[in-house]
Design brief:
Layout: H1 2-12, H2 27-37, E1 41-43, E2 54-59, E3 64-70, E4 76-84, H3 88-98, E5 100-103, E6 106-111, E7 114-122, E8 126-133
Antiparallel strand pairs: 1-2, 2-3, 3-4, 4-8, 5-6, 6-7, 7-8
Helix pairs in contact: 1-2
Length: about 140
């Protein structure tokens, strides 16, 4: 019942997935939220990894890959959003509008009394946004 309430609430607030923090959600809920609110992304379960438990979503253009890393009980512990540099300007704008910048390429999100660290890491061919619960 709690899952249904949470999902319904999120659907009412649906916006860009980058602004939705799904840390702490069960994998079933993540799949449902992504399917119902983020038609840009599709679940890709072609690849299996024996070391990491995760869900992998990709957009159809191949410019974004969203990974939800899961605990042993399939609850999201942190996320990685990997994007082509064509997405950088829009992503930086969203981060600066929605979150508090604490230093270059680092932001803090406060949600339901919890703090989350968001960091942007620039790679050679893409950049990554990593979101983790603050310790």
């Amino acid at each position: 019942m709690n899952r249904i309430i949470i999902i319904s609430f999120l659907l009412l607030l649906s916006g860009a997935i980058k602004s939705q923090n799904l840390i702490g959600y069960h994998s079933d809920d993540i799949k449902k939220i992504m399917r119902e609110t983020q038609n840009e992304f599709r679940l890709n379960d072609d690849t299996k990894n024996e070391y990491y438990n995760y869900l992998k979503f990709e957009n159809r253009f191949g410019t974004k890959t969203f990974l939800f890393f899961l605990s042993e009980n399939d609850t999201c512990t942190y996320t990685k959003l990997m994007c082509d540099y064509s997405e950088l300007k829009e992503t930086l704008k969203m981060l600066n509008e929605k979150y508090q910048m604490v230093k270059e390429n680092k932001w803090i999100e406060e949600k339901n009394g919890n703090k989350f660290n968001i960091s942007l890491k620039r790679e050679k061919w893409y950049f990554t946004l990593i979101t983790r619960r603050s310790k």
